[in-house]
Design goal:
- The complex is a heterodimer of chains A (about 300) and B (about 325).
- In chain A, about 50% of the residues lie in helices and about 15% in strands.
- With about 300 residues, chain A is of the alpha/beta class.
- Chain A folds into two domains: about 150 residues, Rossmann fold; about 140 residues, Rossmann fold (3-Layer(aba) Sandwich).
- In chain A, the strands form three sheets. Chain A has a four-stranded parallel beta sheet, sandwiched between helices. Chain A has a four-stranded parallel beta sheet with strand order 8-7-9-10, with helices on both faces. Chain A has a two-stranded parallel sheet with strand order 4-6.
- Chain B has about 325 residues and is α/β, with parallel strands linked by helices.
- In chain B, strands 3-2-1-4-5 form a five-stranded mixed beta sheet, sandwiched between helices. In chain B, strands 8-7-6-9 form a four-stranded mixed beta sheet, covered by helices on one side.
- The chains are: A alpha/beta (about 300), B alpha/beta (about 325).
Chain lengths: ~300, ~325
């Protein structure tokens, strides 16, 4: 059996688990290509107009897979931590995809509550049963998938740059090179190193968020807020760049919370949408670099490129 | 001995010459009209008749077309608009604390403290409330854009126009127009809406302290200046060369650079006569299928733009002698 896994949304973080799990169950795993023009265009064509860009791109990935597999995995990630949720669009993702695209193979759409291994296992069991596997086979595949996920490290922590910035935002906006117009490389090329949230421990993220007037409802809020505040307070970075897709509801909350928490810290918000012209994003990053340079080194020197 | 600055913007292309004391000696304001290369060529034709190219000892570019401008003319500095505008504003007035800049497709706020840019913001992906929208409304109402501001100042009262989005604003304006409101009042309402939108959007969370300079093409609009002053409660200043500030900044930054390198990369005025044209193609190197633009000068390739990896732009940097990126 061919199982299709779309390379969109949180695939960038959880691909070791998904790929290993279905591979160990004996399926032939087909992963869609890196986001490219065809996937991008198809996503925009088929998805409802109101959705954010990463959700549209996810549609493009499923569209890419629809004729290439017998079963497609649409992870309905509900919870990663107790008492908080991911994002409303993830809860309804399968409905959006199944109604927007025609001619899809059967899909795995069971909700994923990954608040504990036990809770996650109930998703694995249902998915494994769909593939006609027994409990023992599922358990073995599940354990190997967990192992693969644990051994997989993501995140960026550059060294050797004069200026370092925290790159925040939803992981798929940070790691999808097509969607963000190669943002990571652009920042590096302008002489700035990057640090991402993965290099800050969970308990530190949580501690920062505990200072808020109420516990954040969304996991993305806690992670990005905690990371931004901690990086600034502990002087791990000189500035923060927040990459956000136009229309994002959770970002609208996070960005304001960060601004309130760090009123005088250099903070750049990059909004991305369907644009492919890069002049706008280049101008903003270059100007931000110039500003940091002059704040840090306070010299009349202005670099000549950018 | 002059420094040349070129601000290749979405709506206008501005060329400025400054002397070594940073005084403006020449300014040329042209419409880009969708053809940035031709706009620069036109500007160079004018300069060529008045100056010797050997008098230009430094050249800088800015604006959204700064890369293409530097490829065809040779530039010592290729600088973003924020830094260029701030540099020119500080030259004009050391006391400046806030710069409001509204151009063809961008609007910006720049916060300055003790002569250093400490914060800035730009409009998001949407270009509502910028110069091109005002242009379009002027055209629709059949009023020359130069007189737009006067109309607003003549209005006895104002009409409330929706300011969040250019398309919403347009439909609101048409509805009000069909109810019989005077053009003057609608235009004043539009200026108020754009200022409201700017302050709530671009200026959100920023403390706007005087002295405020209002720069960019839209600063020509007296109605906008009045609306800002009403909203902020204090006077704002429009520098004499408000539409040239980006070009002046680029010229000054280029001058600083040549002081260090000792030699300019400026290639002279000859490009005015050369046949410069572009061809675009879809790169077949990977599924990204980038639309790459190739710029020619007669038979020579000047550069490539538009790819996401550096397969083509890398060559441009080699040709231009710039570091990658």
């Amino acid at each position: 059996m061919k199982v299709g896994i779309p390379k969109g949304l949180l695939y960038c973080k959880y691909h070791p688990f998904l790929v290993t799990f279905f591979g160990e169950l004996g399926a032939e795993v087909i992963v869609s290509e890196d986001t490219n023009k065809n996937i991008f265009d198809a996503g925009i064509k088929y998805c409802v107009d109101d959705a954010c860009l990463p959700v549209k791109i996810f549609h493009g990935h499923v569209n890419f897979l629809k004729d290439k597999c017998d079963l497609v995995v649409i992870p309905r990630i509900m919870q990663l931590w107790k008492n908080e949720y991911i994002c409303p669009k993830f809860c309804g993702l399968p409905e959006m995809v199944l109604n927007n695209l025609n001619g899809l193979p059967p899909a795995i759409t069971d909700p994923i509550y990954a608040t504990s291994w036990k809770n996650l296992y109930s998703w694995a069991q249902k998915s494994g049963n769909l593939l006609g596997k027994n409990n023992r086979q599922i358990k073995v595949a599940f354990n190997k998938a967990i192992e693969a996920q644990k051994n997989h490290k993501t995140g960026i922590d550059d060294e050797g740059y004069e200026i370092k910035i925290a790159l925040t935002g939803h992981p798929y906006n940070i790691y999808d090179k097509f969607l963000n117009m190669n943002l990571v490389k652009k920042i590096n090329n302008l002489g700035m190193g990057i640090r991402t949230a993965e290099f800050t421990q969970e308990d530190i993220l949580a501690r920062e968020a505990d200072n808020l007037y109420k516990r954040p409802f969304w996991t993305f809020v806690r992670e990005n807020y905690g990371f931004a505040l901690n990086s600034a307070k502990e002087k791990k970075v000189d500035g923060i760049i927040y990459v956000s897709s136009f229309n994002c509801g959770t970002d609208s909350v996070i960005i304001e919370l960060i601004k309130n928490g760090l009123p005088d810290f250099p903070f750049l918000i990059l909004k991305i949408d369907e644009h492919t012209g890069e002049a706008g994003i280049n101008t903003r990053i270059e100007a931000f670099r110039d500003m940091l340079e002059r704040r840090l080194f306070n010299e009349s020197h202005i670099s000549t490129l950018g | 001995m002059y420094y040349l600055g070129v601000d290749l913007g979405s709506v206008s292309t501005d060329l400025a010459l400054v002397d070594k004391n940073h005084n403006l000696v020449e300014k040329i304001y042209l419409k880009t009209r969708g053809n940035p290369i031709k706009a620069i060529q036109e500007g160079f034709k004018i300069l060529k008749d008045k100056y010797d190219e050997r008098e230009i000892t430094a050249a800088g570019t800015t604006g959204s077309g700064r890369m293409i401008a530097s490829a065809i003319m040779g530039a010592d500095a290729v600088k973003n608009e924020i830094t260029a505008h701030a540099r020119a504003a500080l030259e004009f007035d050391k006391e400046v604390r806030t710069i409001i800049e509204i151009g063809g497709q961008d609007s910006k706020i720049i916060i300055i403290n003790k002569g250093i840019v400490t914060d800035f913001a730009m409009n998001t992906v949407c270009a509502a409330g910028t110069g091109s929208f005002l242009d379009r409304q002027a055209e629709r109402l059949e009023i020359p854009i130069e007189e737009f501001g006067d109309y607003a100042l003549r209005a006895g009262s104002t009409v409330r126009i929706a300011g969040r989005c250019a398309v919403f604003a347009e439909s609101d304006m048409i509805h009000k127009q069909q109810l019989g409101y005077a053009k003057e009042e609608i235009i004043r309402g539009l200026c108020d809406a754009l200022v409201r939108n700017y302050l709530n959007n671009v200026g959100k969370g920023k403390t706007i302290l005087p002295k405020v300079l209002f720069q960019g093409g839209v600063a020509a609009n007296k109605g906008m200046k009045a609306a800002f002053e009403k909203e902020l409660g204090f006077e704002i200043f429009v520098p004499e060369n408000y539409s040239m500030m980006g070009a002046i900044g680029a010229a000054i930054i280029a001058g600083d650079q040549v002081k260090k390198t000792g030699k300019t990369k400026f290639r002279g005025f000859k490009l005015a006569e050369n046949n410069i044209f572009s061809r675009s193609f879809d790169c077949d190197g990977c599924p990204n299928r980038c639309e790459v633009v190739k710029i020619y000068e007669n038979d020579n390739i000047l550069g490539y733009f538009g790819d996401r990896c550096s397969r083509w732009t890398g060559k441009t940097n080699e040709i231009l002698g710039l570091r990658s990126g």
